[in-house]
Design goal:
By secondary structure, the chain is α+β, with helices and mostly antiparallel strands. It has one domain. The protein is 49% helix and 19% strand. Strands 4-3-2-1-5 form a five-stranded antiparallel sheet. The protein starts with a helix and ends in a 5-residue tail after the last strand. 7% of the residues are buried. The mean pLDDT is 77.
Length: 140
């Protein structure tokens, strides 16, 4: 049996650590820059030192990169919490696909980095996304 998830061509992104790895790589690059910058200062020609404004521009650029990485990390954390709340809110509720072909009570949800897949009481799986109707069950 082909599940609606597979039929819709949905392939969840299970790489929750991807952006964490990106952040570590960027931090490593930032640390590498600082080491190179210090070495550049140590080994520059004393008769032709690096322009102070160029040094400040380099430092400012890398400071902005570091702040952007921190902002992205905080945003990811916020999005994860929001996704968990969204996933929790559909458990026990009746969901219906946009085309109305699949409907059932959500028994379990799987949270991926790029979305939520609900497992219904019928065993079907449904991506919770645009067009999916969510309503309270009749016994609530």
């Amino acid at each position: 049996m082909v599940t609606p998830v597979a039929a819709a061509g949905y392939t969840p992104n299970t790489s929750a650590t991807q952006s964490s790895n990106d952040s570590k790589t960027a931090t490593l690059n930032y640390e590498s820059f600082l080491k190179l910058f210090v070495e550049q200062l140590k080994n520059q020609d004393p008769t032709e030192p690096m322009d102070a404004s160029a040094q400040m521009a380099q430092l400012a650029t890398f400071s902005q990169v570091e702040q952007t990485i921190k902002t992205n990390t905080n945003l990811e954390s916020l999005l994860q919490r929001t996704s968990l709340q969204e996933a929790n809110s559909v458990i026990g509720r009746t969901v219906t696909s946009e085309d109305g072909k699949i409907s059932g009570v959500v028994k379990e949800v799987t949270l991926y980095t790029d979305g939520i897949v609900a497992t219904l009481d019928s065993g079907d799986k449904l991506v919770i996304g645009p067009g999916v109707k969510v309503k309270q069950t009749s016994d609530e």
